[in-house]
Design goal:
about 180 residues, alpha+beta, four-stranded mixed β-sheet, 7 helices, about 60% helix
């Protein structure tokens, strides 16, 4: 079974241990990920890793560039994923890297769904939500993503990690229905 968290942690730990710019390594890893998705055919195994490594290093040399320590670390991780036939999981590794970096920097990712089909949340609503979450969690920052969900009828639903705060009209109607059903029994 593939564990994207292990790969992400290994890359981040190696970047930190090697003394390179972690952000530079992550950025290069993402570039490699977007590049490999454009390739056709099988991109796995030792010979594919060797060929890709040569192509990438030759291309960088032809441009007159030199890989930084962080970029070299990212490249080695990328090529190891190719060699181990796990490259198809690179997006989940990148997602885990973001989660680990956010946690390290005190950033909480929050998803808010709302029923407002007329547009996005107002900036004052966003600010209020972010400030309330920062206050309750002691987070340094809140990374807020929004999504319209017309099925909510009204209100909102927040997802903070594994926790869901459901203040939607649907949820309130469901609770009322459950309460009335229990009362009539």
């Amino acid at each position: 079974m593939f564990h994207s968290g292990h790969w992400a942690a290994a890359l981040l730990n190696t970047l930190e241990r090697e003394g390179g710019e972690v952000e530079d390594g992550i950025k290069f890893f993402k570039v490699l990920a977007s590049w490999v998705k454009k390739l056709s055919g099988d991109v796995s195994g030792s010979s594919a890793a060797e060929k890709l490594g040569k192509i990438i290093r030759d291309g960088i040399t032809k441009r007159g560039d030199v890989l930084s320590i962080a970029q070299e670390t990212a490249l080695r991780t990328f090529l190891l994923m190719v060699q181990k036939n796990t490259i198809q999981h690179i997006d989940s590794v990148i997602e885990k890297i973001k989660e680990l970096m956010d946690r390290k920097h005190g950033i909480i990712a929050v998803s808010v769904e709302y029923a407002n089909s007329e547009g996005n949340l107002s900036s004052s609503d966003k600010s209020r939500i972010k400030e309330e979450i920062k206050k309750r969690t002691s987070a340094a920052s809140v990374d807020l993503t929004e999504r319209i969900n017309a099925g909510l009828i009204g209100g909102y639903r927040l997802r903070i990690g594994d926790e869901i705060i459901d203040a939607s009209v649907c949820s309130q109607l469901r609770k009322l229905s459950d309460h009335l059903s229990a009362w009539s029994d």
